[in-house]
Amino acid sequence: MEIVRQDRLVEFAQRHPNTRPSLTRWYHLVRERSFSSFAELRSVFPHVSRVRNLTIFNIAGNNVRLIVSMRYDEQRIYIRYVLTHAEYDKGKWKE
């Protein structure tokens, strides 16, 4: 799948270097595959969830929330937010 706004992963990893290996692993896993549905995505990422039209990945041992818009029809992932668990819990990303 094509990943749009991957610069957000790089920026987050620069601020939180310990997350880089997990974010890199996620990037390669989704880049090398194509997903046609949420169910198919969940077969690779069992802890992925959805909130409204957004898909949320738990990354780095549940310390990072990667919030994306999945476009299965376009085979694109639009990265919206990369947040620490604490930032995610504040809920500002829902606005």
Shape: globular
Strand content: 25-35%
Report how far apart the termini are: 27 Å
Strand order of the largest sheet: 1-5-4-3-2
Order of helices and strands: EHHHEEEEH
Tally of individual helices: 4
Structural class: alpha+beta
**Low-pLDDT segments, ≥5 res:** none
The count of domains is 1
Query: If you consult CATH, what is the topology?
Result: YaeB-like fold
Quickly give the CATH architecture: 2-Layer Sandwich
> What's the level 1 CATH class?
Alpha Beta
**Relative helix content:** 25-40%
Question: What's the story with the biggest beta sheet?
Answer: 5 strands, mixed
> On the 0-100 scale, what is the average pLDDT?
95
DSSP E strands, number = 5
**Whole-number radius of gyration?**
12 Å
What does this structure look like?
It is built from four helices and five strands, in the order E-H-H-H-E-E-E-E-H. It is globular. The chain is of the alpha+beta class. It has helices at 7-15, 20-31, 38-44, 85-90; strands at residues 2-4, 49-51, 54-59, 64-71, 76-84. It has a single domain (2-94), classed as YaeB-like fold, CATH 3.30.2310. A five-stranded mixed β-sheet has the order 1-5-4-3-2. Helices cover 36% and strands 31% of the residues. Strand 3 and strand 4 (64-71) form a beta hairpin.
